[in-house]
TrEMBL record:
PROSITE patterns: FAD_PCMH, OX2_COVAL_FAD
Family: Belongs to the oxygen-dependent FAD-linked oxidoreductase family.
Keywords assigned: FAD, Flavoprotein, Oxidoreductase
Matching InterPro entries: BBE, FAD-bd_PCMH, FAD-bd_PCMH-like_sf, FAD-bd_PCMH_sub1, FAD-bd_PCMH_sub2, FAD-linked_Oxidoreductase, Oxid_FAD_bind_N, Oxy_OxRdtase_FAD_BS
Protein name: FAD-binding oxidoreductase
Pfam families per the UniProt record, alphabetical: BBE, FAD_binding_4
Record keyword Mitochondrion present: no
Domain FAD-binding PCMH-type: 31-202
Names of required cofactors: FAD
Signal peptide: none
Keyword Flavoprotein: yes
Length: 454
């Protein structure tokens, strides 16, 4: 298979004897240590077509790598073939039509850099190193999702190589079932080589609230914040984190790494007096340790937290959607955060609604349009000796929150062994339709292992 790939691809083919092998198989999450047989580093869509056709002939286990930033490390597989798009970095912005076309290896930081030349944006993730492909296909949370929607809502069309080696364009008008599946349930439909996104005016400056409260007031702040989200306009996307104060030069050294409650919110429109007034309620939850609210560039916003999640550290994340955040659930969250095994463990509560909820519940594969919150239990650590303790903490905290859950988010869904347990919680009533679409485009199951991963 490797020899045939080398003969037919313009891109590099990397096997276990290749000097670049260990670097090519590494992904963002240092917990993932998989050894594929062959990595096909595609240079473009034609390389992907050849790779898929050769995969049909040899039938290896197949995984697909875009940005390589996914928690479960599904970009790489043991003993199989990795279709690697990480070198496919093309971005073209048409500011007049307000459309951006980006290839499958592009990260959000790379896309934002190009669209912000024209003060335009499509709803992206919260970490600039995240790949556009995995985040978009799984739904895609971001700092302005209540205003602009999920990442998959900004998607106008995709170019995808399906299991028969055919290049298809999927949109609302062409291959509509394939496009439906790609919007929130896109694992296992093929190899998406490029995305067309609609762009909205946003930036270059945005206004944000960021207020850090002492942890001994955590429950009171959470309750007040929850109540304030009820009346937050769609232009504001609030978020709350149980975490530690960052070791940032703007922060007094004596507060570095202190437990805290971080209340943040972004205004999804022009910076100025109207934005500051809309954000004001997010800054009014009692005495604070620090108020770092203000204006910054959209590109800076999108990369502000990236340094806190460095490549090669170890990560495990699971999440719950919640229709309400009652006082009992708040107590559970605060209690489990206080048991965290390392300072890099955190709990994030994101608000949905707004533009997310305005999409019909069956108009995309994303199955949780009506949820009000998503709670993510995120373990981070460096020492492999802490693997069991850190993963155990996150799983136990997730179990404790499960009674309040209305479903789970595929992009924060644990590791491979969690996939079966979570399938119905992730896809809900859309699971059967997704399976029919996957079977129609991949009757022999070439991408079935990818579809089964978190």
């Amino acid at each position: 298979m490797a020899d045939e790939l080398r003969a037919r691809l313009n891109g590099e083919v990397i096997d276990r004897a290749h000097p670049a092998y260990d670097g090519a198989r590494a992904v963002w999450n240092g917990l993932i240590d998989r050894r594929p047989a062959v990595i096909a580093r595609c240079s473009g869509t034609a390389d992907v077509v050849e790779t898929v056709r050769i995969a049909q002939k040899y039938r290896p286990v197949v995984s697909i790598r875009g940005g390589g930033h996914q928690v479960a490390g599904s970009a790489v597989c043991d003993d199989g073939l990795v279709i690697d798009l990480s070198g496919m970095k093309g971005v073209h912005v048409d500011p007049a039509a307000r459309i951006a076309r980006a290839q499958g290896g592009v990260t959000w930081g790379e896309l934002d850099r190009e669209t912000q030349l024209h003060a335009l944006a499509t709803p992206g993730g919260e970490i600039s190193a995240t790949g556009i492909a995995g985040l978009t296909l799984g739904g895609g949370f971001g700092f302005v999702m209540r205003t602009l929607g999920l990442s998959c809502d900004g998607m106008r069309s995709i170019t995808v190589v399906t299991a028969d080696g055919t290049v298809r364009v999927a949109s609302r008008d062409e291959e509509p079932e394939l496009f439906w599946a790609a919007r929130g349930g896109g694992r296992g439909i093929g190899v998406v080589t490029s995305f067309d996104y609609g762009l909205q005016p946003l930036g270059p400056e945005v206004d944000c609230a960021l207020v850090i409260h002492p942890f001994d007031r955590a429950e009171a702040v959470l309750r007040a914040w929850r109540d304030a989200t009820e009346s937050a306009p769609d232009t504001v996307t609030p978020e709350l984190l149980l975490w530690t104060v960052p070791a940032d030069p703007e922060v007094p050294p004596e507060l570095h790494d202190v437990n805290c409650v971080m209340v943040s919110a972004v205004y999804g429109g022009p910076a100025g007096a109207e934005a500051k007034a809309a954000l004001a309620p997010q800054r009014d939850f009692g005495p604070a340790l620090l108020d770092l609210s203000g204006s910054l560039s959209y590109v800076e916003l999108q990369s502000a937290n990236t340094w806190r999640f460095p490549d090669g550290d170890r990560y495990f994340m699971k999440s719950h959607f919640m229709d309400e955040l009652n006082d009992e659930a708040i107590s559970v969250l605060v209690d489990w955060y206080s048991r965290r095994p390392t300072p890099d463990c955190l709990i994030v509560v994101r608000t949905l609604g707004g533009a997310v909820a305005r999409v019909g519940p069956d108009d995309s594969a994303f199955a949780h349009r009506s949820a009000r919150f998503n709670v993510s239990i995120d373990a981070g650590w460096q020492n492999p000796a802490l693997d069991d303790e850190a993963i155990g903490w996150a799983r136990s905290a997730w179990d404790a929150v499960k009674p309040f859950s209305s479903g789970s988010y595929v992009n924060f869904a644990g590791l491979g062994e969690d996939a079966g347990e979570l399938r119905s919680a992730v896809y809900g009533s859309h699971e059967e339709r997704l399976e029919r679409i996957r079977a129609a485009y991949d009757p022999e199951g070439l991408f079935a292992p990818a579809a089964r991963r978190p």
